Amino acid sequence: MKTKKAPEGLEHLYEKPKYIEETPLSENDAKPQTNIALQIPKKAKPKKKHHYPSAILMYVFIIAAIASFSIGCYVKLHTQNSLNDIKQDQAMVDAFNEERLNIEGSPDMLDFMEELVEKYPSMYGWLTIDDTKIDYPVMQSPDSEYYLDHDYTGEESLEGAVFADPAATFYPLDNYIVLYGHNMKSGNIFGGLSKYESQSYEQTHSTITFSTRYETNTYKIVSVIKTQIPDEETVSFRYYNMFGYSTPEEFAQIKAFVEDERLYDTGEKITFGDEILVLSTCEYTQENGRLVIVSVKQ
Predict the structure, then answer these.
(1) Which of 12, 32, 117, 246 is the most buried (most CB within 10 A)?
(2) 279 vs 5, 11, 133, 172, 262, CA distance in Å?
(3) Under the phi-then-psi rule, with left for phi > 0, alpha for psi from -120 to 50, and beta for the rest, what region is 189?
(4) What DSSP element (H or E) covers 72?
(5) DSSP string covering 77-129, please?
(6) Per-residue pLDDT reduced to its tens digit, 185-201
(7) Element (H or E) spanning 162, and its range?
(8) Separation between Cα atoms, residue 284 and residue 143, nearest integer Å
C-alpha cells in the first residue's frame, strides 16, 4: 500500500481508530531456573531437638485467620467493584438508548421496529439480502466492541451481531454508514459476503434492504472490495472513519476508494449526493484483511 500525505482538512479520514488495532501476542519471558547444589558437611554434630507444638499451632492458626480475613475482604471488595462496573455500564447504555429514543422532530417508528425497540432498546435497524442468510437485526452500543461477542439479545456469543458504530446516527440518517459483522465459517452473520467475490453471484444478489427505526430503503451494490487495515504509520483512506460526508473533497476520497479498489466493474456508478451503505467483515487471505461491500440508496 502506497504512503501518501493526507489531503488538507481530511486528516481524520486517515487516522486509525483504537478499536481497530491488532493486539500483539505477549512474549514468553520465563527464565530457566538454576539448580543450586547443597553442600553437606562431612561431619555434622548432632543438634538438640526442641519441641514447640503449642507455639507452632498458635502461629499456624494466626496465619490462617489473617489469610481468611484478607481473602474475604478481597472477594467482597472485588465483587462490589464488579457490581459497580456493571451498574455504571448499564447506566451508560441506558443513557445512550434514551438519547436515541427521544430525537426531536423524528417521525413515528415503523410498526415492526417499534415492537423490536421496546424489547431490545439497542436496536438500530434491520438488514436483509434476499436469497441469503443475511436477515438480521442491526445493533448499536456506546461500546464499539460489545457486539463482537454478544448477540442482539445481549447474550454472550462467538458470532456476535451485526452492528453500527456508536457515532453513526439514524435520524437524520447519515449519508454514509458502515455496518460490521463477523465472517463466520458457518455462513452466519456476514459469513456469506465472501460469495460476492464472484461477479456472477453479485449480479443475482445485488439489492440490499435496510430498515432504520423510521424508514425502509433499498440499496444497489456498486463495488466489492478486498482491502487491508493499514498500520498507524501508513497514510491511507480509512473507510471505517467516515460518518457521513458533506464536501466534494470528502466524497472524492470515497469515490477513489470505491473505484480503485473494486474487484470488478458492477456497472453501477457512485455520484456526489448518493446515500451510501457499507458492509464490512474480515477477509483472511491477507493480514488485517477486510471484505467491503459498498451500495447506494435507490
Answers:
(1) 117
(2) 27, 23, 14, 20, 14
(3) left
(4) helix 53-101
(5) HHHHHHHHHHHHHHHHHHHHHHHHHS-TT--PPPHHHHHHHHH-TTEEEEEE-
(6) 999 999 999 999 999 99
(7) strand 162-164
(8) 25
106-297: which CATH number, 3.30.365.10, 3.40.50.700, 1.10.287.3510, 2.40.260.10? 2.40.260.10
What does the angle CA 4 – CA 5 – CA 9 come to, to the nearest 5 degrees? 140
147: helix, strand or coil: helix
Cell (9 digits) for 297? 440508496
> Which phi and psi angles does 18 have, rounded to 5°?
-60, -35
Q: Which three cell numbers stand for residue 255?
A: 469515490
CA dihedral sign, ordered 63, 64, 67, 72:
negative
Q: CA 272 to CA 216: how far, in whole Å?
A: 22
β-pair partners for 164: 140, 179
pTM here? Answer: 0.73
Q: CA 108, 113, 114, 120 torsion: positive or negative?
A: negative
- In the block, cell 452500543 appears at 141
Domain positions in the chain: 106-297
What confidence tier does 39 reach under pLDDT thresholds 50, 70, 90? very low
Residue with cell 467483515: 281
Q: Residue 2 pLDDT more than 60?
A: no
What is the greatest pairwise CA distance in the chain? 99
Q: Give how far Cα 98 sits from Cα of 92, 174, 184, 201, 249, Å.
A: 10, 19, 32, 41, 35
Cα-based angle 54, 58, 59 (whole degrees, multiple of 5): 115
